[in-house]
Amino acid sequence: MCGIIGCAGRGDATLDTLLTGLGNLEYRGYDSAGVALANESLDVAKKSGELDALREAVADRTLHGSVGVGHTRWSTHGPPTDANAHPHQDCTGDVAVVHNGIIENYQQLRDELAADGHEFRSDTDTEVVPHLVEAALADGADPEAAVRQALARLEGSYAVAVVVAGVDAVFAARQDSPLVLGVADGATYLASDVPAFREYTDRVVYLEDGEFARVEAGGFEVTDFEGNAREVTVDTVDWDPEDTGKSGYDHFMLKEIHEQPRALRQCLQGRVDELGADVSLEVDPDVDRVQFVACGTSYHAALYAARLFRSAGVPAQAFLAHEYALDVPPIEDDLVVGVSQSGETADTLAALREARRRGARTLACTNVVGSTMARECDETLYIRSGPEIGVAASKTFSAQLAALNLLALSTVGPGDEQMREVIAALRDLPGDVQAVLDDTNAAEVAREYVDSDGFFFIGRGANFPVALEGALKLKEISYAHAEGFAAGELKHGTLALVTEDTPVFAVVTGDGEAARKTIGNVKEVEARDAPVVAVTDGESDVGRYADHVLEVPATNQRTAAVLANVQLQLVAYHVANELGRPIDKPRNLAKSVTVE
Ligand code: F6R
Question: What is the pTM assigned to this prediction?
Answer without folding.
Answer: 0.83
